[in-house]
Amino acid sequence: MNHHLNNCFTTGEFAKACNITKQTLFHYDAIGLLTPHFKDEKGYRYYSYQQFDLLYVINILKELGMSLKEIKQFIKTNSPERMIALFQSKSDELTQKIETLKQIQKVIETRIHLTEQATQLDFSKIYTEYHETEYLFLSDRIPDYSNYQFVRSVSEFITISTEKKLNVGNPIGAMLHRENLLGQQYGNYTYLYLKIEEGQNHVPRYEKKAGLYVIGYHIGEEDTIGKTYDQILQYMKNNHLEIQDFAYEEFILDSISVTHTDAYVTKIVIPVYKH
Question: H or E segment at 268?
Answer without folding.
Answer: strand 265-274
